[in-house]
Amino acid sequence: xxxxxxxxxxxxxxxxxxxxxxxxxxxxxxxxxxxxxxxxxxxxxxxxxxxxxxxxxxxxxxxxxxxxxxxxxxxxxxxxxxxxxxxxxxxxxxxxxxxxxxxxxxxxxxxxxxxxxxxxxxxxxxxxxxxxxxxxxxxxxxxxxxxxxxxxxxxxxxxxxxxxxxxxxxxxxxxxxxxxxxxxxxxxxxxxxxxxxxxxxxxxxxxxxxxxxxxxxxxxxxxxxxxxxxxxxxxxxxxxxxxxxxxxxxxxxxxxxxxxxxxxxxxxxxxxxxxxxxxxxxxxxxxxxxxxxxxxxxxxxxxxxxxxxxxxxxxxxxxxxxxxxxxxxxxxxxxxxxxxxxxxxxxxxxxxxxxxxxxxxxxxxxxxxxxxxxxxxxxxxxxxxxxxxxxxxxxxxxxxxxxxxxxxxxx
Length: 411
Ligand code: KIV
Ligand code: ZN
Description:
Order of helices and strands: EEEHEHEHEHHEHEHEHEHHEHEHEHHH
Cofactor: Mn(2+)
EC number: 2.3.3.13
Bound molecules: 3-methyl-2-oxobutanoic acid, zinc ion
Helix content: 40-55%
Subunit structure: Homodimer.
Number of helices: 15
Oligomer: single chain
Radius of gyration: 25 Å
Protein name: 2-isopropylmalate synthase
Strand content: 5-15%
């Protein structure tokens, strides 16, 4: 465990509750390269993983979960290269089950990182203990404690995940967390592994755990990891933030096992837009969101649904004439999030024959060579109406062609 990292053997590079005017800092872990890469058909090669990891650094995520190194030599090598090459920024972690071989593989793959972290997961619900792990509850808890103690002999920072926490008996969940903290875990992660939670109930669970955790160790970070099986991953994550969670686990575009994970862009924008409500902030460079989303989507071959919040193609496209008129008078009427703040060049007004002169004039302006005379404008508008009758919807590229065709005829 000896390299030149200035952070080596120094705990506290993941600090809890860095409070600023905007509220509590929420630590963001991105697991696009681990939970996200579990999506069938979305496998990445080494260079692609490195590219995404570098972009996650530009996005300023606090922690990159780079893979599951015991699963294959390729995964191990990808985590190792990310740990070595993605420097001066994020903590690098990878996943281990609560067994020595997995923990060794994680340690060997992340040890060259400036800020390495070992992530251990072990089931905590009756269904996981009885059907999957097939040992007594006491034996499982001991297995978790032994795993944390072993990981602590390798690195100072260890995250412990209580898999399927939302279907577990609360007192057993708490005893497990208490034992893991006493064994040295520095982050406790509460996964809603099968997307079973509902926001109010999950918020209450986090509130109770936060209260108890503070009483035994006020430096340990409380984290959440929500799946989207009923479409509630973002809502559950935000309910946890409201109730004191210090850290959130997300993926770009919400990709992940089955229906996916909480979408980073939704959680981050949710916190930012309603900082007044959550009393929290993240360090995410939101202007990098669109570029990161596009990179992940292209490299993994997973299209983003058009109406996806924040990163979908239609997230900033306005098609109703009434909305367009309102927007042109004041963007705030129908736009609570500015596209440029998440790296989208501009909102797009999708014009129809009903959009009207005002909307058309403003939409075509960027494609014109200066101010048209009134007669010129009427000719352009007539051409637009003709095309709109045929095509129904007119996009920016259609406006470009209307303008170019008009100039070509005149020259
Ligand atoms: O969903 C889950 O429980 C996980 C853990 C490894 C955190 O992905
Ligand atoms: Zn998961």
